[in-house]
């Protein structure tokens, strides 16, 4: 998600200066690779300026090809096959045992139609979802070319430059399905005139995180969460603490008591909530609202005994915590990393949040038998900000 934000900002700067660029996007991966489909990098005449498509092994070649794309103003799809032992010596040297295809396309100095960067910008700004379906390969008889695209906004509006009517209809159906499922995939479209491959990518806004408590230990958490590209809201009842000066990186800082909070703070089913007020009664009021809410994660700072007492007091007040709500409640919050200090605690909490949104059981990658990117959908990984 941070990659989206940086690339959009850089494209806006380039367009303001009247300059074009080239965008490279990983559209398919077979076997092992450092990045997943949807990973992007931005290249100008001066070179690589944002994002990445690998761990640094492919980027040099992509930059060279990007310059050719700038000159020809024509999109290309490049295949990097790193499955051969000879590649380590004679090829790009990735050695990841994978086949990676990368779409390299020109970005016009002015807003195009349809405009991928514009769609991503609006998804981020308006906190909406969208779908970008990009043609990767077509048979000669099909009236389309690599890089042609269909974009779908959250309200179902479509913009496209795909000329072939049959392909356009099929791609629109795949885009609608991606919008419903929240997942990305590479599709092969069979038509009367031939076959086409289309990368259909679900784009979502930054993961929303709400921090209740604006103490000094919230500061490193906000910094690290923003570094991941997450949307961070800080809520506190104290005017001296709930300020933009204390949290310059926060997307929102809200002055609110626990009683006012339900009317002031948006709590959706993608929201991660972290309670760290260091005040028992305020925590009790907050949990009475958060646990029955649709949020996907509620973390509470403090020892297990304190959390158990809070749940017991909620029950005495008539707040029945269901099994599903209890499964979304993480107390003590964070992974057991042996962390110390506010920065270490923040790292522990963010690591747990990332594991939850990616539906992963935390563990050492060296113990994982399958691909490190396996076991989750592309949309889950985007939701966690791993791109």
Structure description:
- It is a single chain.
- With 387 residues, the protein is of the alpha/beta class.
- It has 3 domains: 2-107, no CATH class; 116-203, no CATH class; 208-383, 3-Layer(aba) Sandwich (Rossmann fold).
- The protein has 12 helices and 16 strands.
- The protein has helices spanning 2-16, 59-72, 87-90, 116-126, 165-181, 218-227, 261-264, 280-290, 304-316, 323-327, 341-357, 378-383; strands at 21-31, 40-44, 47-51, 76-81, 98-107, 130-138, 149-153, 158-160, 185-191, 194-203, 208-212, 231-236, 252-255, 272-275, 297-300, 329-330.
- The longest helix is centred in the middle third of the chain and has 17 residues, at 165-181.
- The radius of gyration is 23 Å and the shape is elongated.
- Residues 87-94 and 375-387 have low confidence and may be disordered.
Could you outline the blueprint of secondary structure elements for this entry?
Blueprint: H1 2-16, E1 21-31, E2 40-44, E3 47-51, H2 59-72, E4 76-81, H3 87-90, E5 98-107, H4 116-126, E6 130-138, E7 149-153, E8 158-160, H5 165-181, E9 185-191, E10 194-203, E11 208-212, H6 218-227, E12 231-236, E13 252-255, H7 261-264, E14 272-275, H8 280-290, E15 297-300, H9 304-316, H10 323-327, E16 329-330, H11 341-357, H12 378-383
Parallel strand pairs: 11-12, 11-14, 12-13, 14-15, 15-16
Antiparallel strand pairs: 1-2, 1-5, 2-3, 4-5, 6-7, 6-10, 7-8, 9-10
């Amino acid at each position: 998600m941070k990659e989206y934000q940086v690339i959009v900002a850089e494209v806006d700067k380039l367009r303001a200066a009247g300059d074009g660029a080239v965008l490279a996007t990983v559209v398919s991966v077979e076997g092992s690779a450092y990045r997943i489909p949807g990973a992007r990098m931005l290249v100008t005449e001066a070179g690589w300026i944002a994002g990445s498509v690998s761990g640094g092994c492919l980027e040099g070649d992509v930059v060279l090809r990007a310059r050719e794309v700038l000159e020809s103003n024509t999109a290309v799809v490049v295949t990097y096959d790193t499955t051969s032992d000879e590649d380590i010596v004679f090829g790009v040297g990735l050695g990841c045992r994978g086949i990676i295809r990368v779409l390299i396309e020109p970005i016009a100095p002015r807003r195009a139609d349809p405009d991928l960067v514009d769609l991503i910008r609006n998804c981020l700004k308006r906190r909406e979802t969208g779908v970008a379906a990009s043609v990767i390969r077509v048979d000669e008889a099909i009236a389309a070319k690599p890089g042609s695209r269909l974009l779908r906004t959250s309200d179902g509006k479509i913009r496209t430059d795909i000329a072939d009517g049959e392909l356009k209809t099929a791609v629109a159906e795949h885009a609608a399905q991606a919008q419903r499922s929240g997942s990305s995939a590479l599709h092969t479209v069979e038509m009367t005139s031939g076959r086409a491959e289309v990368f259909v990518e679900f784009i979502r806004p930054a993961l929303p995180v709400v921090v209740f408590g604006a103490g000094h230990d919230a500061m490193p958490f906000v910094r690290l969460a923003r570094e991941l590209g997450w949307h961070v809201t800080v809520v506190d009842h104290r005017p001296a603490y709930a300020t933009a000066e204390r949290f310059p990186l926060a997307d929102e800082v809200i002055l609110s008591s626990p009683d006012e909070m339900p009317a002031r703070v948006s709590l959706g089913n993608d929201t991660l909530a972290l309670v760290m007020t260091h005040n028992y009664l305020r925590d009790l009021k907050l949990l009475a609202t958060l646990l029955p809410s649709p949020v996907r994660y509620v973390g509470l700072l403090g020892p297990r005994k304190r959390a158990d007492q809070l749940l017991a007091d909620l029950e005495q007040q008539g707040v029945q915590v269901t099994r599903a709500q209890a499964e979304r409640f993480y107390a003590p919050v964070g992974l057991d990393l042996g962390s110390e200090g506010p920065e270490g605690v923040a790292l522990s909490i963010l690591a747990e949040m990332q594991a939850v949104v990616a539906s992963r059981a935390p563990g050492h990658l060296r113990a994982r038998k399958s691909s490190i990117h396996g076991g989750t959908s592309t949309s889950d990984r985007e939701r966690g900000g791993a791109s």
